[in-house]
Amino acid sequence: MRSEPVLQVHGLVKRYGKKSPRAAVDGLDLVAEAGITAVLGPNGAGKTTTVEICEGYRRPDAGTVRVLGLDPVRQAADLRTRIGVMLQSGGVYSGARAEEMLRHVAGLHAHPLDVPALIDRLGLGGCGRTTYRRLSGGQQQRLALAMAVVGRPELVFLDEPTAGLDPQARRATWDLLRELRADGVSVVLTTHHMDEAEQLADDVAVIDAGKVIAHGSPDELCRGGAENTLRFSGRAGLDLVSLLKALPVGSRADELSPGAYRVTGDIDPHLLATVTSWCAQHGVMPDRISVERHTLEDVFLELTGRELRS
Ligand SMILES: Nc1ncnc2c1ncn2[C@@H]1O[C@H](COP(=O)(O)OP(=O)(O)OP(=O)(O)O)[C@@H](O)[C@H]1O
């Protein structure tokens, strides 16, 4: 049986600016099921605004938002106890000591995670007595993550949880998030790391200019839209017109450099068999044949373009 979505956002609009208001979020629809949902998008796409509205930190101008079935504005108090929040800016009192802070947050919840174990998991053992302002950027980030999850919330919002973390801390964060998921905790995270979304997320939503422009599992997104590539080497100057005739309509075949061939299109087992049988018919021994799947980063760039965002 499928449970109720953890997040339901319909027609969400948020405008900033009094004189000439600009829509940062512009009719956004997003439904997140239990599990890990990654929200991707170029700078300024509206990710943080959307997440902060879901957390109850900002009021929408239009649209409906339900988080665990609750309205984050009208039912803020009920929601607060059921969600965990990690803000981009940390949101921690700068004079508080790391462990003290974490214990304080744990004490606000009925069934918190074990604080020493969590400190250990996130490599904060050596800085438990350090004040927040004296922690390094990566340590502050890890503490903010620990504070978001220590209360065993049903749903955690994480805004760029691994931005600025070293590879070890990134992996430790991923492991922790996978464990939380296995424990029934849902996660909505924003990230600019495509590999993070690919590794962790059950579902990915791509936001651009305040709207969701693509939504699906990483696998679905990588399979749809973007073309894959098949490469092989053979003798130089093969008759590509004849190869193209054998291939499905819409495929392309190029000789990139003498003897190095590239076929693009919908690369499936049938097409692979067509290429190898064409090679057999033409006395070509295809060397170093390989299929390159598009990554989430390829798909992201295809969807959102290559121009820098202001
Ligand atoms: N408090 C604010 N006042 C005015 N404009 C704002 C405010 N917060 C965000 N914006 C604008 O709204 C748009 C969306 O910003 P938002 O922070 O939601 O994007 P984002 O997708 O999270 O970006 P990034 O990846 O850079 O964090 C941007 O153009 C930003 O300048």
TrEMBL record:
Entry's Gene Ontology molecular function annotations: ABC-type xenobiotic transporter activity; ATP binding; ATP hydrolysis activity
UniProt KW Cell membrane keyword: yes
Q: Where in the cell is it found?
A: Cell membrane
Domain ABC transporter: start-end pairs = 7-234
Q: Which Pfam families match?
A: ABC_tran
Record-listed E.C. numbers:
7.6.2.2
Q: What coarse category fits the chief subcellular location reported for this protein?
A: membrane
Q: How does it sit in the membrane?
A: Peripheral membrane protein
For this protein, the record's InterPro entries field holds: AAA+_ATPase (IPR003593), ABC_transporter-like_ATP-bd (IPR003439), ABC_transporter-like_CS (IPR017871), ABC_transporter_ATP-binding (IPR050763), P-loop_NTPase (IPR027417)
An example Gene Ontology CC term for this record:
plasma membrane
Q: Which UniProt keywords apply?
A: Antibiotic resistance, ATP-binding, Cell membrane, Membrane, Nucleotide-binding, Translocase, Transport
What processes in GO biological process is this protein linked to?
Answer: response to antibiotic
Instruction: Indicate the family of this protein.
Output: Belongs to the ABC transporter superfamily. Drug exporter-1 (DrugE1) (TC 3.A.1.105) family.
What is the name of the protein in this document?
A: ABC-type xenobiotic transporter
